[in-house]
Amino acid sequence: MTRSELLSLPASVDIVTAGRALGVGRTTAYALARSGEFPVAVIRAGKAYRVVTADLLRVLHITPENTNGVVVAPTTPSSEHVTQTA
């Protein structure tokens, strides 16, 4: 997946899409999710597996940019909002 495709994903994605972003196939993605070894937190909703896109982007080290080329660093509860120029 390209950077722009990743940034245009909805708030959560299915396990196949998350696996594709990480470069693993469908079968491997499901096997990792079932074993608890998927590299991103997986949410189980009935029979479906979902991944929060923000967590996926964080694991891939992809940060959104605004139109001025300013990279907005992800915030954590213990850090302040920081911006960097690209």
Can you give keywords for this protein?
two-stranded antiparallel ribbon, 86 residues, 4 helices, alpha+beta, three-stranded antiparallel β-sheet, single chain
Description:
The chain is built from 4 helices and 5 strands. With 86 residues, the protein is of the alpha+beta class. The protein has one domain (3-85). The strands form 2 sheets. A 3-stranded antiparallel β-sheet has the order 1-3-2. Helix 2 packs across helix 3 (26-35).
The number of distinct structural domains comes to 1
Specify the overall morphology: globular
Radius of gyration based on Cα positions: 14 Å
Distance between termini?
Answer: 21 Å
SSE run: HEHHEEHEE
Structural class: alpha+beta
Low-confidence stretches: 75-86
Number of helices: 4
Identify the strand order in the major beta sheet: 1-3-2
> What integer is the average pLDDT?
81
The major β-sheet equals:
3 strands, antiparallel
Helix content, binned percent: 25-40%
Number of strands: 5
| Residues in β-strands, percent | 15-25%
Compose a concise summary of this entry.
Helices cover 35% and strands 21% of the residues. With 86 residues, it is an alpha+beta fold.
